[in-house]
Task: structure prediction
Amino acid sequence: MTLVDKFVTHVIAESSFEEMDRIYLTNRVLARVGDGVLEVETNLDKLINLKDQLVEEAVQLETIEDSQTAREILGAELMDLVTPCPSQVNRDFWATYTQSPEKAIEDFYQLSQKNDYIKLKAIAKNIAYRVPSDYGELEITINLSKPEKDPKEIAAAKLVQASNYPQCQLCLENEGYHGRVNHPARSNHRIIRFEMAGQEWGFQYSPYAYFNEHCIFLDGQHRPMAISRHSFERLLAIVEQFPGYFAGSNADLPIVGGSILTHDHYQGGRHIFPMELAPLQKAFRFTGFEQVKAGIVKWPMSVLRLTSDSKEDLINLADNILQEWRQYSDPSVQVLAETDGTPHHTITPIARKRDGQFELDLVLRDNQTSPEHPDGIYHPHKDVQHIKKENIGLIEVMGLAILPPRLKAEVEQVASYLVGDGDAVVDYHQEWADQLRVHHPDLTDKEKALEIVKDSVGTIFARVLEDAGVYKQTEQGQAAFMRFVEQVGILSD
Result:
């Protein structure tokens, strides 16, 4: 069977198209790939693999240019053929939801994989492992899934006329968007619409997922990130409406926030992060909220955990804590609410349902800088930036490191250095490599060396989180944390 025939057969089998549509579909494929593909044979079988071969044939036929952008645009267009239109996707979702919310979510997740919106083949390239720490196991991921633009495409992107459509990658207007050199192809993208507090929101999956069923809940309007009482209301509404999923928000200030601060959104998914498994190291009850279980989590960052049957109690208490934190200062431990009117304090909130109760983790954030730490006092410090120098956002806060692709080769280089196969490593790893060599002077086994280096990366990530923690894991730090808690108001023992 030819490549086109096989692809069209799969499209018919996995969509609402019927056998009568075969000629039409064939012509749609030829229009995108080129007539020269008509006689090409294939040994491949899976839909996404067939799509990938069609894309490469289009490059060979010079129907599209030989670039990552052109490949992504054509690939998304081809997979749009197996993707129902947005209205149908939404009708199907909500019709199923009335019978089983879990089934509706599962069906949408399967669709987003089947149509290659979730890039499973790319995600499989990631290096992921766990390492023990003083705070439980941490998760490490070296992110290899996102294709890197080549220099020609980077140069071309600079020449593209500025466009405000879509305004950002989280806007509803991305649904079905063709794509361009500086904006991803989204022909096969679908978004579930739902309402929160009278406003339209969207639910979609992340194409380059960092964890199981990694999804995004996005504001239907292009509004900036803002942590407020509404954040707690929405997060708890989401975990109620989307059973089995947690929901969390990046902070809304630079340095401690995520990569997109211009569009309000939350992230979620079906994953148990290390922070969720961390126990309370001190429990208490807040005044006026005696029914809410509360405490400080044993975690390198400064986390208050609130648990209750009552969403309203959690929302009210979380808002009290947020308002108090925004204005709270304790110069004895470098905690300042503002400098010359510039605010420093916010919260990274995470919501979940556990054992039938609602739970909120509130991570206290402070984005001060100083001459000693110009990137941020509560940001990875210089001595660990060779591993992680980017902002510590929601996912890292919860104990999952997202590390840059360069580390794949660099970790192997350091391992070779430890067993004497190399004289040096990249300069920013040299001190680290020398320290490892001192502690492991007689290493000869490359695999053993690689494990030592990977474990060390995990240890450094724990330090990264400690750097980002406002109240340190010291007697002084924890005493200062309790001073803030007491300022909010707790019941005496």
